[in-house]
Amino acid sequence: MKIRFALISIFFLQFSYAQEVVIPTNTVSGQNFVKGNQSEDTLKLPFWDDFSETQIAPSADRWSDANVYINSSFTERMPSVGIATFDAVDAVGNFYAGADYENSFEADVLTSKPINMNLPGNTTVWFSFYYRPQGYGDAPEPQDSLVLQFLAEETQTWHSVWSVEGSYDTEFQQVMIHVTDEKFLKDGFRFRFKNYASPGSSMYADLAGNCDFWHIDYILLDKNRTETKTYNNDISISKTITSLLKDYESVPWKHFQNVEIEKITTFKVAFQNHQNINRSIDSLNFYSKHIESGTELKLVAGAKNINAFSYLKPSDLSNMFDFQQNTDDSASFEIRAEIVTDDYDPTINNTTRYTQKFAKYYAYDDGTAEAAYGLYGTGTKYGMAAYRFVSLKPDSLEGVQMYFSRTLNDVSQKYFWLNFWYPNENGLPQDAVFQQIEGARPIYTENRNAFVYFKFEKPILVEDTFFVGWTQTTDEMLNVGFDWNRTANQHLFYNIGGSWIPSEIEGALMMRPVFKLSDIQPNTKKTNSENLSISPNPASEFIRIGNTELQTGTRIRIYNLQGMLMQESIFTTDTELSVTHLPAGIYILQTENGNNILRTKFVKQ
After folding, report:
1. DSSP single-letter state for residue 11
2. Using one digit for the tens of pLDDT, what is the confidence trace for 132-183?
3. 62 CB contacts (<8 Å, ≥6 apart)?
4. pLDDT digits over 566-591, tens only?
5. Potential cystine with 421: which of 57, 67, 372, 429 (Cβ 3.0-4.6 Å)?
6. Across the strands, what pairs with 18?
7. Do 507 and 541 lie in a common domain?
């Protein structure tokens, strides 16, 4: 698999040399339960979850905690769409307490709600699940492990009933556990999975990203089962559908309407037969729903025959969706694939959805980071990375969105320059680089895969091909999110020794150029900074605004150079503002009163 080879190249290359690298990303697990039954009411058998019902957080109807990350992107060939991913970080992307380089530590936990197992003497209760190490993440080492524990309700003690040590990627493997011990056959029984992780060597501490991934799926606890009945009467969709655009994941809506952009010609949906006999699918239906208007289009493919325990990937449906036209600046469509099966087949995992977005940005990535990309090693100080895009129409580039992944060692204080290039005659970035922001730093968020917006001081006109990227100011990598499920490295270049080199790491960088969209009516507000001054400048505790035109009710905003609003107030009669809470750096102060906007910069010491 591509992930395995890429990660091996990272950890076994000599880091004394400058190079491009990727490391595992910090996936933010489910921070809150989805809506559902959040009480601790006892559940009845059968207990079954294939994680196809929710995303991000496990279902609150079946689980008592939300540490793991429910997703459909960290592996392929899932038993059904949706897996529970265990890793080394908590719900906000931080390493768990006790994380060090020497010993494994307890990380994610997934605990069931109480289950009525009051079945004394019953010998037909079996617990089964599928597991897989690594996937598109980091492989757990032999000292790491995935553990299954059962709760003895009367004594409230947990007992380990199964475990496996870390290893490199494998296919999903099924585990069958016979539940016969009387201490578990009680009302109030629970089970839980937990993983033990370790960041690895401290030799390259700033490369210690999230690690030791495990994935579980298709959990079933029920009576009247046997050791040989490892199958289920079920056909499930086992892979998510993706963008309908040929090259991009998303483009601005007005750009999409401007030209006939190439769309995919076949639509692939993977599904799996979990039964021990051949099964057939009555039909495979596709729906395209314009979310804003509710208008829906349906296409139907023919029936499919699936052999017992097989995995089928049909690709014979021509995808000619007619996107509804409108004059809005953005649009979104729900693309849905649905298989129709026999009446006794569970239907919850017969549907997969994808939202095709047309917003103000271009994107190659699907919005989910499985790794983090950067330049690392001696000689990468002032190294550059450039990402190529082709605008479908002339427009004003306003800024970029970037996603940064945490490491065990925080690099949020490492400055970089945000760059823009026009192409030269060879189609590579020109020697002349336009440094749009010189004081940018990585910004971490507590939301999963949340992008940070960096706004240029002035929009840049682009008509065709252009590049956005960065120059780093240290030898430490920036850890920009990297998507293993999309391929766009043919558009990514890096420059360490004076020449541009195409990226060899297959994937898509999570960096998106954002456009102003020139068809929008221009802003009629006046901007004039001649009569606006700040003192003292630099400032340490407070600033005074010098301007005779300021009126009561004027709005005063302070932004950092990334365009983030740091402070806001309404002018009364006092022109002195406290800035003691602001970190040291350069800021933009803006006053706004009706159509009159004034801006100026100041430095906080």
Report:
1. H
2. 999 988 899 999 999 999 999 999 999 999 999 999 999 999 999 999 999 9
3. 43, 47, 49, 112, 113
4. 888 887 766 678 888 898 887 878 78
5. 429
6. none
7. no
pTM of the model: 0.74
User: 184 pLDDT exceeds 60?
Assistant: yes
Whether 114 is in a domain gets the answer yes
Give me the helices (H) in 471-536, please: none
Give the tokens for residue 370. 């499985």
Rounded to 5°, angle at Cα 479 from 506 and 249? 50
Q: Does one domain contain both 454 and 511?
A: yes
In angstroms, the CA 62 to CA 114 distance is: 9
Per-residue pLDDT of 167-179, as tens digits, reads 999 999 999 999 9
What is the dihedral sign for C-alpha 532, 537, 538, 543?
negative
Peptide bond connecting 536 to the previous residue in cis, omega within 30 degrees of 0: yes
pLDDT digit string, tens, across residues 195-243: 999 876 444 445 556 789 999 999 999 999 999 988 889 999 998 888 8
For residue 297, give the H/E element and its range: strand 296-301
Q: Same domain, yes or no, for 474 and 565?
A: no
| Domain harbouring 577, CATH code | 2.60.40.3080
496 with 579, same domain: the answer is no
Tell me: do 538 and 502 sit in the same domain: no
| CA–CA distance, 235 with 135 (Å, rounded to integer) | 22
Residue 323: phi and psi, rounded to 5, are: -70, 130
Residue 443 burial by Cβ neighbours in a 10 Å radius (0-12, 13-18, 19+):
middle
Three-state secondary structure call for residue 253:
helix
Report whether pLDDT(249) > 60: yes
pLDDT-derived band at 40 (thresholds 50, 70, 90) equals low
- Amino acid, single-letter form, for residue 136: Y
Domain CATH code at residue 495: 2.60.120
CATH of the domain at 353: 2.60.40
What residues make up the domain containing 475?
371-515
